[in-house]
Amino acid sequence: MTWQNIRISRFGGPEVLELSAQTAIPEPGPGEVRIKVLAAGTGFTDSFIRRGRYPDFKGPLPFTPGYELVGVVEKTGVGVSALRVGEVVADLCVVGGYAQYAIRPAAFLVPVPAGLDPAEAVCIPLAYLTAFQMLTRVCHLPRGATVLVIGASGSVGTAFLDLARHLGLKAIGTCSARNMSAVEGFGAKAVDYRSGDFAAAVRRLTKEGTGGGGVDAAFDAIGGGHFSRAFACLAPGGRLVGYGSQTMAVGGEGLVSAALGLLRLKLWDVFSALFGGRHAAWYSITDRRRTHPDEFKADMATLFGMLLGGGIHPVVIDRLPLSAAPDVHRRIDAGGLGGKIVLIPWARQT
Ligand SMILES: NC(=O)c1ccc[n+]([C@@H]2O[C@H](COP(=O)([O-])OP(=O)(O)OC[C@H]3O[C@@H](n4cnc5c(N)ncnc54)[C@H](OP(=O)(O)O)[C@@H]3O)[C@@H](O)[C@H]2O)c1
Q1: Is the pLDDT assigned to residue 9 strictly greater than 90?
Q2: 347 falls in which pLDDT band (50, 70, 90)?
Q3: What are phi and psi of 89, to 5 degrees?
Q4: By percentage, how much of the chain surpasses pLDDT 70?
């Protein structure tokens, strides 16, 4: 029997994503399981990796991309006792999701409750968990607080807006004009960051709530020099959380500028008293999972519970076969999609 995956043999544009046929069914080693992948999430971080610019993954080539997956445990390796064959699990695998089969360490897997749609469930490990941990672990926001979501039309941005609504937070989201209705659909106020000074627009929007003083928390993955603009949107005592370097990913800024952005976050935080008590922090889901593995699993379980209970509503824009991966990346590279495109590896290939 042959099975399929997407392989990248050289870094580059969407055309480097190639559908490949494999002959041998992979066998799990000690502590590993073989997963039959039901749904693979896609997002900008996959594009970042595909370009060869992602700091935490540079190969080796060839490799299969795909940051997150949901699938069924098909076979367990020696020493795996916590998981059963037939159980549905989720994984933040960083690479390896765009495939019909994945071999993964059992220790990182999180059970997915029965009754969940795999395509909706796969929105949780990267997009929703990232947003949830920044909203509830890095920041501690009371109901009614105002948050600014930069890049609100993206897969993480829409997760932020959905969670903010669930947590009783007021949200302002920046996006392009064409995406304003997607952002407003979550009950957020949309600001077109391309038409003028978005910090001034945010201050105007917060005039009544905080006396024109800005937002209680801002979340920015554009990075580099953009962090200064997001910091300028904070009310006294507010917190900026930087979590990406999208400008560097697309070649708009170099490594030095991205590093200066990180340095600014540190300085603002250390010298908070000079900035009206405003704070800043950096967040990385993979770092936090490494330092707080139990928190990662607990938060995943909490989010799956919210999904099961109808408290959150991930937007799955399309469900497509693996062969659509190059087109999916072209769409991701064109900007925020208002949700997530999910690959269904066992769908009939086009
Ligand atoms: N640190 C972590 O743990 C972590 C975890 C997950 C993701 N990330 C990072 O988070 C970022 C977002 O991921 P995603 O999958 O949500 O991406 P996405 O779906 O492509 O969304 C990107 C968003 O950014 C906006 N945008 C693009 N360029 C911009 C610019 N120059 N100025 C302002 N806004 C801009 C887009 O808006 P329009 O298209 O409407 O213009 C869109 O809303 C990526 O950089 C990713 O690597 C980090």
Answers
A1: yes
A2: confident
A3: -130, 160
A4: 98
For every residue of 111-170, DSSP letters joined together read E--TT--HHHHTTIIIIIHHHHHIIIII--PPTT-EEEETTTTSHHHHHHHHHHHHHT-E
- Say if ligand 1 is within 6 A of residue 218 CB: no
- Mean local confidence (pLDDT), 264-279: 94
Average confidence (pLDDT) over 12-38: 97
Mean pLDDT (whole number) for 293-322: 97
Tokens, residue 244: 């990406």
Q: For residue 317, how far is its CA from the centre of ligand 1 (angstroms)?
A: 16
Between CA 119 and CA 126, with CA 124 as vertex, the angle to 5 degrees is 110
210 lines ligand 1 (CB under 6 A): no
Residue with tokens 């038409």: 195
317 lines ligand 1 (CB under 6 A): no
Q: Which residue, among 46, 40, 57, has the nearest Cα to 16 in the 3D structure? A: 46
- Delineate the domains of the chain, giving CATH numbers in brackets: 3-123+314-343 (3.90.180.10), 126-286 (3.40.50.720)
Atom of ligand 1 nearest to the CA of 45: 47
C-beta of 48 in contact with ligand 1 (< 6 A): yes
DSSP assignment letter at 308: H
* pLDDT, average across residues 207-211: 64
Compute and round to an integer the Cα radius of gyration of the chain. 20
Distance 47 CA to ligand 1 centre (A): 11
175 lines ligand 1 (CB under 6 A): yes
What mean pLDDT, rounded, does the chain reach?
94
Confirm or reject: Cβ of 335 under 6 Å from ligand 1: yes
| Burial of 74 per CB tally in 10 Å (0-12, 13-18, 19+) | middle
Of all protein residues, the one whose alpha carbon is nearest to atom 45 of ligand 1 is 246
Q: Which amino acid is at 165?
A: R
Q: Residues 128-179: pLDDT tens digits?
A: 999 999 999 999 999 999 999 999 999 999 999 999 999 999 999 999 999 9
Is residue 227 within 6 Å of ligand 1 at its C-beta? no
